[in-house]
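Fold this sequence, please.
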Amino acid sequence: MAPPLLTLKNIHLTFGGTPLLEGAELSVAPGERICLVGRNGSGKSTLLRIAAGLVEPDKGERFAHPSAAIRYLPQEPDFGDVTTAAAYVEAGLGPADDHYIARYLLSELGLTGDEDPRRLSGGEARRVALARVLAPKPDVLLLDEPTNHLDLPAIEWLEAELKSMKGALVLISHDRRFLESLSRATVWIDRGIARRLDKGFASFEAWRDEVLEQEETERHKLDRKIVRENQWMHGGVTARRKRNMRRVRELAALRKERREQRNVQGSVLLAATDGGQSSKLIVEAKDVSKSYGAGPVVDRFSTRIQRGDRVGLVGPNGAGKTTLLKMLTGELAPDSGTIRMGESLALVTLDQKRDELKDDWTVADALTGGRGDQVVINGRPRHVASYMKDFLFTPEQTRSPLRVLSGGERARLMLARALAKPSNVLVLDEPTNDLDLETLDLLQELLSDYAGTVLLVSHDRDFLDRVVTSVIAADGDGRWIEYAGGYTDMLAQRKGEDLQKGTDPARKGSEPSGPTPSPAPSQRPASTDPETSTPSRKRKLSFKEKHALETLPALMDKLHTDIATLGATAADPTLYARDPKAFADVTRKLTAAQAELAAAEDQWLALEMLKDELES
């Protein structure tokens, strides 16, 4: 194997009295593809900055091959006093580099190079910063969250570009699909040390769980040994007059070892506050349109979203995702068409910009609104410090100003604020930004179990596949098409079409290259295949479907009665104090009855629609 181009050995670093890195190591050989993973605050970005030579560790060695070109992409680029995007990119080139490549990459990323860096959006700034580190074709490329603020076409372009590069890559990202596609080795930053797995991210989580399980076994053995030594110290033989000092010293060493062990950071405990059941219909849009300037952002779009749906909105930056989302939530009126909102809707929005967080607030103020030290969750008051622990904040951070929080901590705080509010419709605009992979897993589980409706804007392909039941995708010129399933299902439904888009998606800001979406059923041309165009026999309701139509109304009436009875019992304020077991049993039965009623309503509605369709 070729000697490494970049090496970190025995790296130690302490911030604010707390050790962040304790003997961490990293070795990067030519052509390697390494991903750095770990919880928020574990030191991933710091280790990458040390590798880039931007941070000096308290202890340890950094070696970079003298002839190796190393480039580093920070999460927030500093444009300094440059006047154009092209000037910023060209400033990162070496004397022997071709300056034409700067303009070429900017063009590939949808920019001219003449843009003022001070007026760039988050996505445009990220593209300019990427062009700067890619242009020199470095031997080692260090990337910290390169997909932040990028839309799906740009992410897929970047993925292809990094696959084709010859240099080594060290990558930090929360995008699972991105990591799985690019990594060939994984370095896990955990409790100050770096553990290496010579496999890509796809194998990481199973390996991590094995390591933690083995650690737990060893910790249990150590605890048992301490117990035995304590028993010897305090029990012993009655006639013993003098203790064995060697064993006393060993016991002290065991206690010190156990005390100094750094335990695994706990998991975020996510639970949404119930806002009651909404109406069956959440929102119905008919032929809605919205225009800004010359062209339409939304052009004659129709959809019907019902209770329990999980809808993802995807498209390039500037396609109008936020505009469409605001119309679907009633915040913005369409220029034409109609929007009909359901009843009893309790909407809670998580905004990606986090503008509602003020830097001079404390964490407690952000959760309580500055009113006292309690927050009400599902009707029950909780001390703010207790609720903060569910989101991995320490009691000491209660009075910390928000300006000292990391990006991941601010993301968790926004989640805590949103989930504390009663809701039956969650509106999430890029909720995955800055969250670590473990928190993303828990957020995905929360949304999967959420009893209400979810409207989600995201560029995270894996997260979309795990969460949504349908995707509304931009197709250019204000046209939006809805597909069943997740992001991968959307791509599969586009295959087989003959028409191809002729522009590069990353350059022109259109949807990912590939076949165009299938037209809606009402827009598809009639088949010319004689087999498929032959009229089929008219379908009729089956015996089972007829029987269900006849019996479901009676079942729904019974369930309504049961729910009313159980609800009255559960509303008794003295029941929990008198008989907690009975309260839990009533609550369980009430939840089950509500779920059964919802399923029965869904089935009855589907059968009624089928009956009307067949009769017409």
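The domain at 6-69+138-206 is CATH 3.40.50.300 (Rossmann fold). The chain has three domains: 6-69+138-206, 281-531, 543-615.
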